[in-house]
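Board notes (copied after class):
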Amino acid sequence: MLFLLAFTSTYARSNHSECNDINDCRRLFDIVWGCLVTIFLCIWVSVHPNIPPPCPEPPDGTGLRFLKWWLVDGNRPFLQRLKLMTVALIAPEFILGFAARQLQMARFLSQAQGYGLSLTHGFFIVMGGFVDGDGHPVVTQRQLRRNGVTEEIRAVHKSDIEDKSKGDLLSKGIALCQGLWFMAQCIARRAQHLPLTELEVATLAFTTISAITWILWLQKPLDVRGPLKLLVKTKSRSHHVGNPYPAGLTRIERFGFLFSNSYNRHEYDPFANTSVPAFWGLAESDFDKLPRWSSFSTIFAQFACAILIGGIHLTAWGAFFPSIVEMWLWRSSALMLTVLPIVFIVLSIPGGRWATHLRLVIIGIYSIARGIVLVLSLATLRLLPPAAFTDINWSIYVPHF
């Protein structure tokens, strides 16, 4: 597909007299490739998965069972990361809200009286990084209050946790430079009155949200494959083990957890599991000293992110579109992305079944609007204005005599 775009763009360039010097031109392939690379790098670096479930041992033989293990069971860390990256590509506001939720709970564990942990320790607890002597994640208040649990966690040095992180300065630096370079190009094109393609506007939204998400997860260890095991056991004799997650939960309920970035303590039993869910951020109802406004702050961050995404897409209000229909589809969708989160917050104040149904309708309309701008970002590449292929004149920013 990329080679086809490159061939098409080479042919299209010959028909535009505004860009007849190769040094002052860019091809359609350059536009698409730059956007795709920027989106991939930003999402890859910004996403910080929780501890994945342990991988089972490979089966004997080389048949279909071994092939299944090699493709699925043996690649659980990669599949969990791919799941988060997919959500970040479709709905980056969900990932940002998830990151804000985990940061809030990690800060609570590091600042609340009785824990005395660092922020890195707090993140490691939130992501299921500590398991007890039986191999169950230590993620509840009751577990942390068991004799010797907090002391053992505190005894683990911060550097030992950071050593398990796979995030290196080189990969993060490359992604950061690519994102900053893309933003600089967008600003320079606007300053020189050169148009941005709709794909570049969408990429700018992804880059901005990914940068904020990366900042929220800055202290969270990256790509940790296995937890640290404590010696103490945290299960009480009177505890009745429930079903492993997500047994008993519908897809709507699981989507609700993702949307609100919150779990209830009765919906996940660590003693029935060996890892935390992919979008786990501790159960808010399980910690009695957690401020009441905590859940509202993370939801507010998520909706502020959604408004920011819509606002960035609104900057292409006067952009060139191949048809009038596509122009108004883009404008109306960008307007919906900006306004609907505000309406949703207002409707969350009153109760009642009518408000719940209306919020579901808003979520549906918002999802359709997101899909429209994503499709139009690619569809409008078939016919771009000649000025879109004109490259930036960087020489005007270099002092000369």
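Comment from the instructor: Residues 289-385 form one domain. Confidence is low (pLDDT under 50) at residues 1-17.
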